[in-house]
Structure formats: structure tokens, C-alpha cells
């Protein structure tokens, strides 16, 4: 077994690589410069010259608000590149593991199972839904939500920076979901290497973005980390962002048993301040 991990510098790919190293799983990871997933010649050359058994697609367009103005770009990465990978994986007999998002749902339900119909509200969500439809039945699709981790840009790092700089923050309080620690998602993905179909993975525990921020602040205060922030004001989604987001995007994990997201948050903070 050998994995090809796409999106080498990204948050999830970094976690995947770390877990592969821990478990002694043979793998290769590539950046966009090394293999451009939008270029069929580049991707085909990888399939024809590199010996691997699984394709782990951690790449994609993730700028939710920016996608409202860059629809073609979002669909190029989230639909067309996925279609190319799916086609070549099928041609060459490779297993494809692809990641999607809670934003494929409209937020009208309290929680979502894998078989629930999709109805995205944003261009980003629509582009991810379109990518899902390009997958073949033998592929493994893993939807996740509110991803954070040791590397990359994400909500936890943004909150830490703002709490160090500002006395008062405003954070959305009318969106509910389940934060997901990238290392836990990577662990789950490695357990599904031989699986086909759709899976949901998000850490245990429901919260709002405001609740998430309050927990980050509390954890930092427990570590005596110097903060300027003393107040986090709850605000509505209308105050932030161009893209419409689901009010409730709680992914029900069914057969998977993830740990609580606060455990992952502790690991991220330990890595950030104690390493």
C-alpha cells in the first residue's frame, strides 16, 4: 500500500502526512507546483509514473466568501479537478478518498446523516456538491466541518491572534456545527482506506462559532497566555461574510466514534505554545 496525498502544504494534508509517519504508512505528498490537479497532462503523468494504491485528495478551493466572486475558480478546483481524479483513478484501478463539507446542506435540519439530500446555499457549497457528484461508487467520500489543526490558517489561529490584539471581539452566534480536529479526521480517513460510499466525520460536541471562541479564550486563560480580549460579543451572520451559510450543519457521524473537539483544541494549543 502506498498513498498519494494531494495538497501537501494544506491543513488536512499535513495531518495526513503526520499520521502516515506515525503508523509507518508509505506515502508521497505533492504540491500544486509538483502536480497541478487542474492539468490533465500533469495528473495523468503522476498516475502513469508513480506507483501508489490510494489517492487522498486534500486539495480544493476553500475561500467561502471569495467564492461568491470567483465561481469559475471554485468550480475548477472543487468539481473539474475532482472529475479528473475520479476518471483517472477508475482507469488505473486506484482508490480515491475525497473530502467534502457540511456546507453542501441548507441548515434547515438539526443534524445531517449521509443519506440526506444536499441543498447548498453558497457558491462554495455548490462547487463541493458538484465535486461529490463526479465521484464513482467505489470512491470514499468523507464530509467534515469546521476544520482546525496544528498547521495552516483556521478559526483557532485567527481567534488567538485577535484575542492578543483586541479588547473586544464579535463572533457569530447563529450557526451551529461540530468543530473537527484535522489529526482526528486524518485518523478516520486512514481507517476508511478500503471503504466505499459516503461518510460523515466531525468531532463530538455541538457549538456555535461564538461558543467555540469562548472555549478558546477560556483555554488560553487557563494557560495564563497574555490576552487583551475581555469580551466576545455574539452577533448574527448578517454582520459577516458575503456567502450564506447553513444555520445548523451538525454532521451525524453514525458508525464512527470521534473524541470531543475540546481534546483536539488542547493539542493545538499545546503545539502552538509548548512545543
From TrEMBL:
Its EC number is 1.1.1.133. GO terms for molecular function: dTDP-4-dehydrorhamnose reductase activity. Pathway: Carbohydrate biosynthesis; dTDP-L-rhamnose biosynthesis. The keyword Transmembrane helix does not apply. Residues 1-271 form the RmlD-like substrate binding domain. It is an enzyme of class 1 (oxidoreductase). Keywords: NADP, Oxidoreductase. It holds the Pfam family RmlD_sub_bind. It catalyses: dTDP-beta-L-rhamnose + NADP(+) = dTDP-4-dehydro-beta-L-rhamnose + NADPH + H(+). Catalyzes the reduction of dTDP-6-deoxy-L-lyxo-4-hexulose to yield dTDP-L-rhamnose. Belongs to the dTDP-4-dehydrorhamnose reductase family. This is dTDP-4-dehydrorhamnose reductase.
Amino acid at each position: 500500500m502506498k498513498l498519494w496525498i494531494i495538497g501537501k502544504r494544506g491543513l488536512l494534508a499535513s495531518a495526513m502526512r503526520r499520521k502516515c509517519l506515525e503508523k509507518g504508512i508509505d506515502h508521497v505528498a505533492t504540491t500544486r507546483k509538483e502536480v497541478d490537479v487542474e492539468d490533465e497532462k500533469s495528473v495523468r503523468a503522476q498516475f502513469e509514473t508513480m506507483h501508489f494504491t490510494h489517492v487522498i485528495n486534500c486539495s480544493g478551493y476553500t475561500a467561502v466568501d471569495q467564492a461568491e466572486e470567483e465561481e469559475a475558480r471554485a468550480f475548477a478546483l472543487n468539481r473539474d479537478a475532482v472529475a479528473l481524479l475520479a476518471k483517472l483513478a477508475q482507469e488505473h484501478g486506484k482508490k480515491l478518498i475525497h473530502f467534502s463539507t457540511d456546507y453542501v446542506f441548507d441548515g434547515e435540519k438539526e443534524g445531517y446523516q449521509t443519506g440526506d439530500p444536499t441543498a447548498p446555499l453558497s457558491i462554495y457549497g455548490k462547487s463541493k456538491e458538484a465535486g461529490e457528484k463526479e465521484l464513482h461508487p467505489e470512491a470514499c467520500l468523507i464530509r467534515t466541518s469546521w476544520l482546525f489543526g496544528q498547521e495552516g490558517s483556521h478559526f483557532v489561529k485567527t481567534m488567538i491572534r485577535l484575542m492578543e490584539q483586541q479588547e473586544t471581539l464579535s463572533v457569530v452566534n447563529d450557526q451551529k456545527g461540530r468543530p473537527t480536529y484535522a489529526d482526528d479526521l486524518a485518523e478516520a480517513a486512514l481507517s476508511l482506506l478500503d471503504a466505499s460510499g459516503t461518510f460523515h466525520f466531525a468531532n463530538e460536541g455541538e457549538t456555535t462559532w461564538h461558543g467555540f471562541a469562548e472555549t478558546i479564550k477560556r483555554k488560553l486563560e487557563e494557560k495564563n497566555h497574555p490576552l487583551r480580549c475581555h469580551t466576545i460579543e455574539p452577533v448574527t451572520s448578517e454582520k459577516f461574510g458575503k456567502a450564506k451559510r447553513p444555520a445548523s450543519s451538525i454532521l451525524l457521524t453514525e458508525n464512527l466514534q470521534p473524541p470531543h473537539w475540546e481534546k483536539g483544541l488542547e493539542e493545538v494549543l499545546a503545539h502552538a505554545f509548548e512545543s
